[in-house]
Amino acid sequence: MIFTPALLYILTGIGLFILGLYALFVHSHLLRKILALNIMASGVFLVYVAAAYRSPEAISDPVPQAMVLTGIVVASASMLLGLALAARVKAKTGRTELDDGSPSE
């Protein structure tokens, strides 16, 4: 199996997405969940960058690159919204962790 740069980007992107998805479900702290979403978005961006790659001599496709730039802006805005909501939850409840859903006694 020959590792091309596009394949390396795809594998790294899939790995980052799985790592972020795991952290999203495992951790109950809000900041860690926000960071997990950012890691997942970075994985998706790497897969899009790999989709733009054609060959070392050819010019890469600009459409996936434009989608990545748009995605970076959207990811930054959603991260700021998540941080604002986490700050609101902290101010309202005094905690930054979500309940696990089990009844507490």
TrEMBL record:
Membrane-spanning residues: 6-27, 34-53, 65-87
Chief location = membrane
Does Transmembrane helix appear among the keywords?
Answer: yes
Write out the GO cellular component annotations: plasma membrane
Mode of membrane association: Multi-pass membrane protein
The alphabetized UniProt keywords are: Cell membrane, Membrane, Transmembrane, Transmembrane helix, Ubiquinone
Q: Which InterPro entries match?
A: CPA3_antiporter_subunitC (IPR050601), NUOK/Mnh_C1-like (IPR039428)
Q: Where does it localize?
A: Cell membrane
The source's superkingdom equals Bacteria
PANTHER family associated with the record: ANTIPORTER SUBUNIT MNHC2-RELATED (PTHR34583:SF2)
Belongs to which family?
Belongs to the CPA3 antiporters (TC 2.A.63) subunit C family.
Q: What is this protein called?
A: NADH-ubiquinone oxidoreductase
Question: Highest lineage ranks of the organism?
Answer: Bacteria, Pseudomonadati, Pseudomonadota, Gammaproteobacteria, Chromatiales
